[in-house]
Design goal:
Elements (H helix, E strand, L loop, with lengths): L1 H21 L23 E5 L5 E8 L2 E10 L2 E13 L2 E6 L6 E7 L2 E3 L23 E5 L2 H4 L13
Antiparallel strand pairs: 1-2, 1-8, 2-3, 3-4, 4-5, 5-6, 6-7, 7-8
Length: 163
């Protein structure tokens, strides 16, 4: 009888340990969440997006040593800022020079996949934004690093933002 009691205690302890390792009814189980695929950051080419109430898109394509961009920010589906031009990267500073009626160069900070725009835009840039519009927050994240990714960006009319 004593051997049976010792065996019962041993089995109970083993079952408790197994239950602890597996979690009670799945409530404590670790869930494998896949990491986002790596995005190339060696070049500017790609698609950058911002989250928030009005998602924004920035696409950059490089060809022949020149980087061109298209940009649109939205709030409730309405454009806040939009424009296109040339992009240059020096260190962690990305300079976006708009092509258009008003001289506008925006300097943003690039760190890895994240692109942060200044809270306030230079005076000439107001031409490219609706009243009260801006690029401030949230930051943009590079979500695709290929030309094909950049070509997925769309302007407000549904046309390509980059060509």
């Amino acid at each position: 009888m004593r051997k049976l009691s010792v065996l019962a205690i041993f089995l109970a302890a083993a079952c408790a340990q197994q239950r602890e390792e597996q979690g009670d009814a799945g409530t404590n189980r670790a869930v494998d969440v896949p990491s986002p695929p790596p995005v190339q950051t060696a070049t500017l080419t790609g698609l950058y997006e911002s989250a928030g109430p009005g998602p924004g898109q920035l696409c950059i394509t490089e060809q022949g040593g020149t980087a061109r961009f298209g940009l649109v920010t939205r709030s409730s589906g309405v454009a806040q800022c939009s424009g296109a031009g040339t992009a240059t990267l020096r260190g962690t500073t990305l300079r976006l020079a708009m092509n258009g009626e008003s001289a506008c160069t925006i300097e943003a900070r690039m760190e890895g996949r994240r692109l942060t725009f200044p809270a306030e835009l230079p005076r000439g840039c107001a031409y490219y934004c609706s009243p009260g519009g801006g690029l401030g927050t949230p930051p943009f994240e590079k979500v695709g690093g290929a030309r094909e990714d950049a070509l997925r960006a769309r302007d407000l009319a549904g046309g390509p933002l980059c060509t």
